[in-house]
C-alpha cells in the first residue's frame, strides 16, 4: 500500500437500490440544454446542435434525504431535475449501438446551479465551474440497476418544490438520447467504470430558498428528496 502525506478523503459513492454495496463515483459529466423547452427558456435555439458537456466533482454528490446547504456568494440558486446514467464499463470511440452495454443503472439527480454566477461567467466568456461545480451541487438518489429496470427512454420526469409542481417533462423529449451521449463523450474522454452522466433537465428551472423541500421523480427509475438548509 502506498503511503500518503495525509489520509486520503473517502471515495465518493452512490447508493444502489436493494444492495449494500455502493457505486464508486469517478467523474460526473453533465450535458447542457438537452431538452428543447429548457433550451428555449434559457434563450437558445432548440435545434439539434452538437451536444456540450461540463463537469462536476464527484465529491459534490449528495444522497437522497440529505440537506443541501445553500451555497455562499450567490442569491440565485436554481434546481434542474435530471436522470443520471451510471457506467460500469468504459471505453473510447464507443459506437451508439454498443453504448447501453456500458450502463450499470439509472438514478434521479439535481444539477444545482448558482445562476447569477453562471450568467456572469457567460457574459465575461469565462468557464462555468464557479456556477456549476460547487460543494454539494450534484445530489443523486440511489441507482436502479439496468438489469432490473431496463434502459428507460420514455417516462415522466418531475420536480416538486414544497408540494407544488415546478418541472415536468418526459425522457422521450431528450434531444440527445442516452446512447448518443455516451458515444459522443467517448470521442473526447476515455470513459471508465464509475462515471456518471447527468442527462439534462426539462423546462421549469427556478430558484430555491432556505427551508424548501424538493421531491424529484423519474418514472420507472426512482425518487430523490432534499431539504434546502
From TrEMBL:
It holds the Pfam family FAA_hydrolase. Keywords: Metal-binding. Transmembrane segments: none annotated. One of its GO terms (molecular function) is acetylpyruvate hydrolase activity. Residues 28-228 form the Fumarylacetoacetase-like C-terminal domain. InterPro entries: Fumarylacetoacetase-like_C, Fumarylacetoacetase_C_sf. This is Fumarylacetoacetase.
Amino acid at each position: 500500500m502506498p503511503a500518503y502525506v495525509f489520509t486520503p478523503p473517502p471515495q465518493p459513492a452512490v447508493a444502489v437500490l436493494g444492495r449494500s454495496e455502493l457505486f464508486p463515483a469517478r467523474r460526473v459529466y453533465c450535458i447542457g440544454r438537452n431538452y428543447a423547452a429548457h433550451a428555449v427558456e434559457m434563450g437558445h435555439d432548440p435545434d439539434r446542435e452538437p451536444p456540450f458537456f461540463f463537469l462536476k466533482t464527484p465529491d459534490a454528490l449528495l444522497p437522497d434525504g440529505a440537506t443541501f446547504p445553500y451555497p455562499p456568494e450567490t442569491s440565485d440558486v436554481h434546481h434542474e431535475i435530471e436522470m443520471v446514467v451510471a457506467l460500469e464499463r468504459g471505453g473510447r470511440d464507443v459506437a451508439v449501438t454498443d453504448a447501453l452495454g456500458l450502463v450499470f443503472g439509472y438514478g434521479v439527480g439535481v444539477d444545482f446551479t448558482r445562476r447569477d454566477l453562471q450568467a456572469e461567467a457567460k457574459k465575461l466568456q469565462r468557464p462555468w465551474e464557479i456556477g456549476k461545480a460547487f460543494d454539494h451541487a450534484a445530489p443523486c438518489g440511489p441507482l436502479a440497476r439496468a438489469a432490473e429496470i431496463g434502459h428507460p427512454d420514455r417516462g415522466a420526469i418531475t420536480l416538486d418544490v414544497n408540494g407544488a409542481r415546478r418541472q415536468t417533462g418526459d425522457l422521450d423529449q431528450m434531444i440527445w438520447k442516452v446512447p448518443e451521449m455516451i458515444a459522443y463523450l467517448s470521442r473526447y474522454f476515455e470513459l471508465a467504470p464509475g462515471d456518471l452522466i447527468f442527462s439534462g433537465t426539462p423546462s421549469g428551472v427556478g430558484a430555491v430558498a432556505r427551508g424548501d423541500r424538493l421531491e424529484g421523480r423519474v418514472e420507472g427509475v426512482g425518487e430523490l428528496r432534499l431539504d434546502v438548509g
